[in-house]
Design a protein that fits this description.
Layout: E1 5-9, H1 23-39, E2 43-50, H2 55-64, H3 68-85, E3 92-95, H4 99-114, E4 118-128, E5 133-135, E6 153-162, H5 168-177, E7 182-183, H6 185-196, E8 203-204, E9 206-207, E10 215-216, E11 219-224, H7 226-231, H8 233-236, H9 246-251, E12 256-260, H10 264-278, E13 286-289, E14 292-294, H11 309-316, H12 318-328, E15 335-337, H13 339-369, H14 383-402, H15 406-427, H16 429-432, H17 439-459, H18 467-475, H19 512-523, H20 541-544, H21 549-554, H22 559-563, E16 567-577, E17 585-591, E18 594-600, H23 608-611, E19 615-619, E20 625-627, E21 630-632, E22 635-636, E23 638-640, E24 645-647, E25 659-660
Parallel strand pairs: 1-2, 1-12, 2-3, 7-13, 12-13, 14-15
Antiparallel strand pairs: 4-5, 4-6, 6-8, 9-11, 10-11, 16-17, 16-19, 16-25, 17-18, 19-22, 20-21, 23-24
Helix pairs in contact: 2-3, 6-10, 11-12, 12-13, 12-15, 13-15, 13-17, 14-15, 14-17, 15-17, 17-18
The chain binds 5'-O-[(L-methionyl)-sulphamoyl]adenosine.
Length: about 650
């Protein structure tokens, strides 16, 4: 019989900066599901990737003075590294800059145009660049983007439009007839009441005001709207509209698209309408999860939070982080992230409950029986209750995982762990051990503990990639058959006569106070200056867990590190705009007897005439780079925030070339 398939996706990530722990939330959840389904014997396709086009990326690249492709390549490499570190088992990684993706998106656009679902007209309206969203005037809130509250720009351009309005009634009907299509239910109501029932307008699906996107194949001055491009990834990754559509035929429709709540709208309106227009089946479910927010309240402001997943994983271990993400908040709701809550959870659930149970069990088998549980055993009080509780856990885990209720599934598993710990208190092995005649009873108690742990090691596997093997090693379990998913449903198959291996503590306890002090040093005072740290000030996940934590970390340098920089006073002799780059100025600088050419991204803030004669600060030993084909021999320092950029200058005149330290 052919294997059943399971196709799960995460959103594809914007490579517009470093990913924070909130970003890894969807991916870790999807990974847990993918692992679970594989353990259940499914043929799984787990897709993630990156969404690399759009004005936002183009602007970021311009700010850095590099090409958008160079810009995304670097960040995407970091994202891939992160998923590797987090042991994400995606089967494919799609980049919207992949040639095949671009070709197929062009074909999709063309087909929709040819059949009249896309037409040419003129767009006049408001555009939110950070969200890559169009809005009508009436949709704006206080003149700002209704999604993120940021400034919008008035745009008027010739555009292509998608006949979204045509699909409104079919969409409403589909959602009403398929209650599982949008989950949780609250999001279904939101889509119906706030968007669909009030009426859909046709959607502007091309832009001419920037270049970084997939060109419309038959009208190249237009690039395809980034959401049309991005949403298509779910089928272009399966080779839709190519010579070999076998994967598409095998895996589509997706079983579930996991997405954050702010992008449910795109996935439950634009995407299904596109698929309807293409005559393709709709995904079975779109699940809109909540956000992980930062809290300002409980921890003092200056303590900040480390939200860089790389730091967190390296500090606390992968399984602790994955456990926390999936355990601490119900999947559909928002939750608060704090380092303190993380450490408390690690200490209570992992170090105390699970880690301790493993250590105690193995240590007792070692101490009382020299590492091997004897065959002669005697049943007694509490055994049946333990077995009943532990044996409920596998089926409950399955039932809850099928509904994507990760936190409830973990709660059920931890009930089994707690019950097993309680069993030790009830049976008091250390008392039994005092009398040789209790040996068979003591052996049974040890056996039951080992057997519970065998089962627990199986059902935590979807959530934790590393811990199951550590438990099995300590229990001496090598026969893979005994740790397959279905083996969790049979009690009493832990083999007699195998030897346990006393090993390291699986989850060391963390000393909260000391750890918080260390974290405080890492975050540095800077982070606390951001008002966005407070959950109540947050309306968008990008803001919710904005982090350049490792950049802040990098701020912790030694004096020797600092001394490696050759900072010099330089006088601007000449300045001119760089053709074709509205952010760049080419400068000629005097540095003592030497002159230097530097390309600087300050053109939006300084006219060439205004900076000639100024003394600025130059990093003189920076490796030269080419920006727009012009060599830049160093970098001048400037301060900037969202609105302003000011050059770092001196408090008076000094000889050019003077060292700054
Ligand atoms: N590029 C789009 C998705 C296109 S899918 C066809 C996008 N990218 S994103 O990088 O901004 O976000 C990716 C995912 O990360 C989203 O589902 C978003 O909700 C999620 N998260 C970002 N910050 C988050 C939290 N603080 N908490 C939970 N999820 C968060 O949107």
């Amino acid at each position: 019989m052919e294997k059943k398939t399971y196709y799960i996706t995460t959103p594809i990530y914007y490579p517009s900066g470093k990913l924070h722990i909130g970003h890894s939330y969807t991916t870790v959840a999807a990974d847990a599901m993918a692992r679970y389904k594989r353990l259940k014997g499914y043929d799984v396709m787990f897709l993630t990737g990156t969404d690399e086009h759009g004005q936002k990326i183009q602007r970021k690249a311009e700010e850095k003075g590099i090409s958008p492709q160079q810009y995304v390549d670097e960040i995407v490499a970091g994202i891939k590294e992160l998923w590797k570190l987090m042991k994400i088992t995606n089967d494919r990684f799609i980049r919207t800059t992949d040639t095949q993706h671009k070709d197929v998106v062009q074909k999709i656009f063309k087909r929709l145009y040819d059949q009249g679902d896309i037409y040419k007209s003129e767009y006049e309206g408001w555009y939110c660049t950070p969200c890559e969203s169009f809005w009508t005037k009436t949709q704006l809130v206080d003149g700002k983007c209704p999604d993120c509250g940021r400034e919008v720009e008035l745009t008027k351009e010739e555009s292509y439009f998608f006949r979204l309005s045509k699909y409104q009634d079919r969409l409403i009907k589909h959602i009403e007839e398929n209650p599982d299509f949008i989950q949780p239910v609250s999001r279904q109501n939101e889509m119906l009441n706030n968007f669909l029932r009030p009426g859909l307008e046709d959607l502007c699906v091309s832009r001419t005001s920037f270049k970084w996107g997939i060109p419309v194949s038959f009208d190249e001055k237009h690039v395809i709207y980034v959401w049309i491009d991005a949403l298509s990834n779910y089928i272009t990754a399966l080779n839709y509209m190519t010579n070999d559509e076998s994967d598409y035929k095998k895996y589509w429709p997706a079983d579930v698209h996991l997405v954050g709540k702010e992008i449910v709208r795109f996935h439950t309106i634009i995407w299904p309408a596109m698929l309807m227009a293409l005559g393709e089946p709709l995904p079975k479910q779109i699940y809109g999860h909540g956000w992980l927010l930062l809290e300002g309240g409980k921890m003092s402001k200056s303590k900040g939070n480390v939200v860089d997943p790389v730091i967190l994983v390296n500090k606390y271990g992968l399984d602790s982080i994955r456990y926390f993400l999936l355990r601490d908040m119900p999947f559909g709701s928002d939750g608060i992230f704090s380092n303190e809550a993380l450490i408390n959870r690690i200490n209570s659930d992992l170090a105390n409950d699970l880690g301790n149970l493993v250590s105690r069990t193995v240590a007792m088998i070692d101490k009382y029986f020299g590492g091997k549980i004897p065959a002669e055993r005697e049943a007694g009080d509490y055994d049946q209750d333990l077995v009943n509780t532990v044996m409920q856990a596998p089926s409950k885990t399955e039932e809850l995982l099928e509904k994507l209720q990760f936190n409830n599934a973990l709660t059920e598993i931890w009930k089994a762990i707690s019950r097993t710990n309680k069993y030790i208190d009830e049976t008091m092995p250390w008392v039994l051990a005092k009398d040789e005649k209790n040996s068979p009873r003591l052996a049974q108690v040890m056996y039951n503990l080992a057997e519970s742990l065998r089962i627990i090691s199986i059902i935590i596997e979807p959530f934790m990639p590393e811990t199951p093997e550590k438990i099995r090693h300590q229990l001496g379990l090598t026969d893979k058959k005994l740790t397959e998913w279905d083996a969790a449903k049979t009690w009493g198959i832990y083999p007699t006569g195998i030897a346990v291996n006393k090993g390291e503590v699986i989850f060391p306890r963390i000393e909260l106070k000391k750890e918080m002090e260390e974290l405080e040093q890492i975050t540095a005072a800077k982070e606390s200056e951001k008002p966005m740290n407070k959950a109540h000030a947050v309306s968008q996940p990008e803001k919710a867990l904005e982090s350049e934590a490792s950049e802040k970390n990098a701020a912790l340098v030694t004096i020797e590190d600092f001394a490696k920089l050759d900072l010099r006073v330089a006088k601007v002799l000449e300045a001119e705009k760089v053709e074709g780059a509205d952010k760049l100025l080419k400068l000629k600088l005097e540095l003592g007897s030497e002159t230097r050419q530097v390309v600087s991204g300050i053109a939006k803030h300084y006219e060439p005439k205004d900076i000639i004669g100024k003394q600025v600060i130059l990093i003189a030993n920076l490796k030269p780079v080419k920006l727009k084909g012009i060599e830049s021999q160093g970098m001048i320092l400037a301060a900037s925030d969202d609105t302003k950029l000011l050059l770092a200058t001196l408090d008076g005149e000094i000889n050019s070339g003077a060292k700054v330290k």
